[in-house]
Design brief:
Largest sheet: 5 strands, mixed
Number of strands: 10
Shape: globular
Order of helices and strands: HEHEEEHEHEEEHEE
Helix content: 25-40%
Radius of gyration: 15 Å
Strand content: 25-35%
Strand order of the largest sheet: 5-2-3-6-9
Length: 163
């Protein structure tokens, strides 16, 4: 295949391809922009806690981990550091997050990431159908959290606290 004909797939195309390769059933929906978690949940017709943020967290050795955090909760840094056995973690700037995942902030998902970083899911998402970033602005995806956890071999743990 010549370079001239090779197009880089869109974020949503990468998401669909990776989900299919893993046998993961997802639904991608178009949505309008939201100014808050509550507004996003209203647009999607779900509860705020059913929206899961995929946060890319940088370790001191320049490797990353996806932390799946439900709406209304935030990472508990002491809990996540203890789980990963490290003493330093940080949220990278937008350019590093893009380089690590191939996705812009607000669209990040482990599904279709350009690098398959380990996934840690907060225990509160277990047993739920959740919405998360779909690789492109203006889209969200729905997925069964348990199927997502299984497809990525995610570690399930208590890694959050209320916002």
């Amino acid at each position: 295949m010549s370079e001239a004909n090779h197009e880089i797939p869109s974020g949503a195309e990468r998401v669909r391809a990776d989900a299919a390769a893993r046998g993961l059933d997802i639904e991608i929906v178009e949505r309008t922009a939201a100014r808050s978690l509550e507004e996003a949940a209203e647009i999607l017709g779900i509860q705020p806690g059913d929206i899961v943020k995929s946060l890319v967290v940088k370790r001191s050795d320049d490797t990353y981990v996806f932390a799946l955090v439900p709406g209304g909760r935030k990472i508990s840094w002491p809990k996540l550091r203890a789980l990963l056995g490290v003493n330093k973690l940080q949220l990278p700037d937008a350019s590093l997050a893009l380089a690590a995942t191939g996705y812009e902030r607000g669209t990040i998902t482990p599904i279709g990431s350009t690098t398959a970083w380990p996934v840690v899911a907060d225990e509160t998402i277990v047993g739920r159908r959740v919405s998360m970033g779909a690789g492109e602005h203006g889209r969200s995806l729905f997925v069964d959290a348990d199927a997502l956890i299984a497809a990525y071999g995610a570690i399930v743990a208590d890694i959050t606290e209320p916002e």
